[in-house]
Amino acid sequence: MARILGIESSCDETAAAVVEDGRRVLSSIVSSQFDVHGKYGGVVPELASREHLRAITAVVRQAMEVAGCGYGDLDAVGVTQGPGLVGSLLVGMTYGKAICYSRGLPLIGVNHIEGHIHAVAMEAAGRLEFPALALVVSGGHTHLFEIEEGFRYRLLGRTRDDAAGEAYDKVGKLLGYNYPGGPVLDALSPYGNGRAVRFSPAKMKGNALDFSFSGLKTAVLRWVEGHGMEEEIGRRKEFCKTNPRPSTAEWLELTPQATLDLIASFQYTVIEELLRRSEAAGEEIGARSWVVSGGVACNAGLRDAARRARLPFPVFFPTPALSTDNAAMIAAAAFVKYERGEFADFSLKAQAGLTLA
Length: 357
Ligand code: KG4
Ligand code: ZN
Description:
Elements (H helix, E strand, L loop, with lengths): L2 E6 L4 E8 L3 E9 L1 H4 L7 H23 L8 E7 L3 H18 L3 E5 H12 L8 E6 L4 E7 L3 E7 L5 H11 L6 H8 L25 H12 L4 H13 L5 H6 L3 H29 L3 E5 L6 H9 L6 E2 L3 H4 L4 H13 L17
Parallel strand pairs: 1-4, 4-5, 6-9, 9-10
Antiparallel strand pairs: 1-2, 2-3, 6-7, 7-8
Helix pairs in contact: 2-3, 4-13, 5-6, 5-7, 10-11
C-alpha cells in the first residue's frame, strides 16, 4: 500500500489530497480563488501566487487531518510541475519539496494534464481499456491524446489558439457575466435554442485533429456588435458588482431570449467541435475507451451529447468535484510514477510550458 500526498497550485486553486494506491481518496481539499480574480474577469498571476502562499499551509494541514494521517504515514509527495503559472507552481512545489526534505520522502513531479487524465482513470480503474482516447478540456488546454497501456501518451491534436474553457470565459466576460463564464453559460444554455445562430465550424489546415476556438469567439463578438446589446450587458455587469455569485434564476431575469439563443448556439458549436474531432481521433487509433477530463468536462451539455452520440467505445467523465483542478488527481498520477520508481530530486523545476507528449 502506498499513501501519497498530492499538492496542486498551477493556476487559481490551492489543493492538497491524500490518496491511497492511486485510487482511494482519503482527503481532497480545494481552496479556490474565484472571489479574488472575479472582478478582473480572469486570473491575475501575481495575485494568484500571493493567495497560494496564504492558503498552502492550511490546505495541506487540513488534507492531512481529514485523511487522519501524519507525515510519517506518507510514502511520497506528488507536486504539480507544470504546465501553469510559474509563480503559482513554485508555491506548491516548494512546499512539497520542504516536506520531502524534512521527512526523507521521495518527491514526484506530475504533469497537470496527466493529473486531469488520472482524475478519470482512478474512478474508472479496471474498466479503462487501451488504447484509450483522452480529451483534456480546461481553461488552459484542449488536447487529444492516445493513451497506451501503462499510461504512455501520444499527442493527436491540440488547440492552435484558445482553449475551450478560455473561449467560454472570454465569451462570458464579453456578455457581461462573471468569471468563470463556463459554468454560467452552461447553466443558461438549456433555456436557449442552440440552432438559432449558425456559427461555421473551424476549418483546420494540416492536422485535422487540431482545434481552434478564436474564430468562434470573434463570431460571437461580431454578433454582439451587430445587435445593440450594450444596455443589457451593462445591466449584468452592474448586477455582478453587488452580487458576486448570482444564481441561474437571477441571470435568467437579466438575459433576454435572443441572448439565451446566442449562448445555446455558442455551446452547441463548442460541443460539436469537441465531439467531431474526438470521434475522428477515436477512429484513427482504434480507441477502446474515451476519457474526458478538465474543467469543461463538468459541462452538462457535453456530457449529454457524449452519451447520445452512441460512440463505438465507452465514455468516462470524472465526477464534477474531480473535473476542475484538485490534488487527488495529482496524487493518483504520482502513484503510477511511484510504482515505476520515477522520482525527482530537489532540482525539480516548475515549467510553465511543460508538455505531456
Ligand atoms: O481544469 P480547470 O479547473 O483549470 C484549468 O486547468 O484550466 O478548468 C477551469 C475551466 C474554466 O475555463 C471554466 O470556465 C471551465 O473550466 N468550466 C466549464 C464548466 N465548468 C468549468 N466550462 C464549461 N462548462 C462548465 N460547466
Ligand atoms: Zn486544470
